[in-house]
Design a protein that fits this description.
Rossmann fold; N-(1-d-carboxylethyl)-l-norvaline Dehydrogenase, domain 2; 8-stranded mixed beta sheet; 15 helices; 49% helix; 11% strand
Length: 331
C-alpha cells in the first residue's frame, strides 16, 4: 500500500504539531499546518517560526501555515495534534472536511474525561468515515523540531496502512515504527504521564533515586496490567510507546508532567505547580484510575498520584500508604 502524493495536513500548531510539520517538511514532504486562530496562523506564517511554542526554530520552507480547515480535503493524511481533552471538539469541527477513508492520526496522549473514551474511539465516533491511527513514543517536540534522532510508533488496526504511513513519514532523523496494537500504544502514551507526575513528586521531595526507581518499576507494572485488561498486547508496552516513553518522561525536567510533579513535591499547590501550562497527566489521572477500578485492576501508584493531584491526601500520606501495603510476591 502507498500513500497518495498529496500534502500531509496537521491540525494543531502547538509545539508537537509544529515539530512534526518541520520534520516532515525537512524530509521534502508538502505539509499544511492548520491553526484555527487566524491571527496565530498569520504570525507563524509571516515569521516562519512558532515563537510561542518553539522559539528559535525556523520553519521548513515546505510547510504552509493556514487557518482554513478546508486544506484537510486536499491532504493524503491528517494528523490531529491538539490536546487530548480537545480532540472531540476539534474532530467535530472538521469531520465534514475529511474525505472518505482518510487516515486520521491522533498525536495526543490521554483518555477523555467524562466519557472514559480512548482517543482512537473518539475518532470513530466523530469522524466515522476516517481510518483511525495513533502516533506515540518517546519524543520531545524541541528535539524533533531540531532534527535530533528520535524513534516513535504509528499504529492502526489497518496494518498495511500503518506501514505505508510509517514509510512515508519517516526521515533520517525521525524513525517511525508501525504496528496494529492501537490500544496498547494509546494506553502507554496516556498512562505514563500519570506515572511521570509521581516520579516528579519523588524527585521534588528529595526521596532519593532508589525510591524513584522503585516507583517507576511498580508503576510501569500497573500500566502493563491495565493495558492487558483492555486487550492490549504486553509486548507493545515494552516498546517505544510504553517503556520508551516512560523512561523519557519519568526522568526529565523537559517533561511537563515530571516538572509538575516535581513542583508538587516541593510543596507547591497544583495550580501554581502547573505554571499556566497544560499538564495532560493531571487531567488523565482520574479517568485512568476510574477505568482501572471498573475492570478490577489495582493501580496503587497511580491512585496515590491522583489523590495527591486532587488534594485528597498529602504527599506524606501517599508515601505512608504505598510503603505500608501488604508484602506480597512481585507481579
Amino acid at each position: 500500500m502507498t500513500i497518495p502524493a498529496r500534502p500531509i495536513a496537521i491540525l494543531g500548531a502547538g509545539a508537537w504539531g509544529t515539530a512534526l510539520a518541520n520534520a516532515f517538511g525537512h524530509k521534502g514532504l508538502s505539509v499544511t499546518l492548520i491553526d484555527r486562530d487566524a491571527g496565530r496562523a498569520a504570525a507563524i506564517a509571516a515569521a516562519r517560526e512558532n515563537a510561542r511554542f518553539l522559539p528559535g526554530v525556523a520553519l521548513s520552507p515546505n510547510v504552509e501555515v493556514t487557518a482554513d480547515p478546508a486544506a484537510l480535503a486536499a491532504a493524503g493524511a491528517a494528523l490531529i495534534a491538539v490536546p487530548a481533552q480537545h480532540l472531540r471538539a476539534a474532530l467535530a469541527s472538521v469531520a465534514c472536511r475529511l474525505p472518505l477513508g482518510m487516515p486520521v492520526v491522533v498525536c495526543a496522549k490521554g483518555i477523555e474525561r467524562g466519557t472514559g473514551r480512548f482517543l482512537s474511539e473518539i475518532v470513530v465516533e466523530e469522524a466515522p468515515s476516517a481510518i483511525p491511527a495513533v502516533l506515540s513514543g518517546p519524543s520531545f517536540a524541541a528535539d524533533v523540531a531540531r532534527g535530533l534522532p528520535t524513534a516513535i510508533i504509528l499504529a492502526s488496526r489497518d496494518e498495511p496502512l500503518a506501514a505505508a504511513l510509517a514509510r512515508a513519514l519517516s526521515s533520517p532523523t525521525l524513525r517511525i515504527y508501525h504496528g496494529s496494537d492501537v490500544r496498547g500504544v494509546e494506553i502507554g502514551g496516556a498512562a505514563k504521564n500519570v506515572l511521570a507526575i509521581a516520579c516528579g513528586v519523588v524527585h521534588g521531595r528529595r526521596l532519593g533515586e532508589s525510591a524513584r526507581a522503585a516507583l517507576l518499576a511498580r508503576g510501569f507494572a500497573e500500566i502493563v496490567r491495565f493495558a492487558r485488561a483492555f486487550g492490549a498486547r504486553p509486548e507493545t508496552l515494552m516498546g517505544l510507546s510504553g517503556l520508551g516513553d516512560t523512561v523519557l518522561t519519568c526522568g526529565s525536567g523537559q517533561s511537563r508532567n515530571f516538572s509538575f510533579g516535581e513542583a508538587l513535591g516541593r510543596g507547591e499547590p497544583p495550580v501554581r505547580a502547573a505554571g499556566g501550562k497544560l499538564v495532560e497527566g493531571a487531567l488523565t489521572a482520574s479517568v485512568l484510575t476510574a477505568k482501572a477500578r471498573e475492570v478490577g485492576v489495582e493501580m496503587p501508584v497511580c491512585e496515590a498520584a491522583e489523590a495527591v493531584i486532587a488534594g485528597r491526601i498529602s504527599i506524606g500520606q501517599a508515601i505512608e500508604t504505598l510503603m505500608n501495603r501488604p508484602v506480597k510476591p512481585e507481579t
